[in-house]
Design goal:
Elements (H helix, E strand, L loop, with lengths): L1 E4 L4 H16 L23 H13 L8 H17 L2 E10 L5 E11 L6 E7 L20 H20 L5 E7 L15 H8 L10 E6 L12 H20 L14 E3 L1 H7 L5 E5 L23 H17 L5
Parallel strand pairs: 4-5, 4-6, 6-8
Antiparallel strand pairs: 1-7, 2-3, 3-5
Length: 330
């Protein structure tokens, strides 16, 4: 993903405020056209952070998941075969996208659907590819990186969530979208990022696919991570985002999910889900209070040593609490 803005303009503040007001006062409408349901009184399974950690390490073990490498195919094969054991339906999108220099890049998007008959749905997504070069590294900007947090951690959390959905079926419909070729972009062209998501948004796995809202996970496993409300997420999906933050704080994860404003906007997968697929989607991504990314972002330090089960637990348990108990209470 690309850092876009760190300081809000007055116009952006006003636009965000207007959007927040509209999304919090009108609770009857959603992108599916279905009426929302009340909070569900069902037991919520315990999120297994050790399992999510193992799924994260499994991806890293394949090597950097860079397009046009054997690691890309091996990791895709593992995710597909594993999700087929759990999901009601697994869709696979294999295509070729144009990189920032018109290079042809194989792209593999994987969609695992649960409770497909449910009209009200939640979209959970993360990218699984690895940036080809550590361009923020202090020593070698052309080096490969493991992408343990930036990519693998989000997928690790969603793989564990999928395992739980198989064990205890949620009332809501859930679709897990694992997108490829997110991090191949260059800084002077923000639309060169998120190529797998752009393809999916134009070519959804089901014609006319809609979800009530989406949750993007990106860099959700780092030790001591803090998650602030990203600017575009507030504009497009403030209602469900605020609900998620409230649930996280009620569960005792206030050290992770922060209400303070740090004024940052980024170009990430959620932008294209919002603007092209028209599904309100927010981004859960680690920030520093300054508005900068974590120090290991796009460096060789993004390896398993930064991954912490406590952070994985905070994100994963909140997802399960929302999905099972109050997926549409916003």
């Amino acid at each position: 993903m690309r850092k876009a803005l760190s300081i809000l303009t007055t116009l952006a503040v006003l636009a965000s405020a207007c959007q927040q007001q509209s999304t919090t006062t009108d609770n009857s409408a959603d992108s599916t056209g279905a009426s929302k349901v009340a909070k569900l009184n069902v037991p919520v399974p315990a999120f297994n952070a050790d399992s999510a950690y193992a799924y994260t390490a499994k991806q890293v073990g394949f090597g950097p998941r860079i397009p046009n490498t054997p690691a890309q195919q091996r990791c895709a094969d593992w995710m597909i075969s594993t999700l087929k054991q759990w999901a009601d339906t697994v869709y696979i999108q294999r295509t070729t996208v144009d990189g920032p220099h018109k290079e042809k890049l194989p792209c593999i998007n994987i969609i695992a659907s649960f409770n497909p008959a449910a009209k009200q749905r939640v979209l959970l997504l993360a990218h699984w590819d690895t940036r080809p070069w550590a361009d923020e590294d202090a020593f070698d900007k052309k080096a490969k990186l493991d992408g343990a947090d930036d990519g693998a951690s989000g997928v690790g959390v969603l793989m564990e969530a999928a395992r739980q959905f198989r064990t205890q079926k949620p009332e809501a419909g859930v679709d897990i979208l694992l997108v490829d070729v997110e991090d191949y972009g260059v800084k002077d062209n923000e639309n060169s990022f998120c190529l797998g998501t752009q393809y999916w948004a134009k070519n959804p796995h089901i014609k006319g696919y809609k979800a009530n809202y989406g949750i993007l996970l990106d860099m959700v496993g780092g030790r001591g991570s803090q998650f602030y409300m990203e600017g575009s997420s507030q504009q497009y999906a403030y209602g469900p985002m605020k609900m998620f933050w409230d649930v996280a704080n009620q569960l005792g994860y206030s050290d992770y999910f922060r209400y303070e404003k740090n004024g940052s906007y980024i170009t990430d997968d959620h932008i294209y889900v919002n603007t092209m697929a028209n599904i309100p989607t927010f981004d859960i991504i680690a920030w520093q209070a300054s508005g900068n990314f974590a120090p290991h972002w796009h460096t060789q330090n993004d390896n398993m040593t930064v991954i912490d089960t406590k952070t994985l637990k905070a994100v994963g348990q909140t997802i399960l609490q929302v999905i099972y108990n109050q997926p549409f209470s916003y």
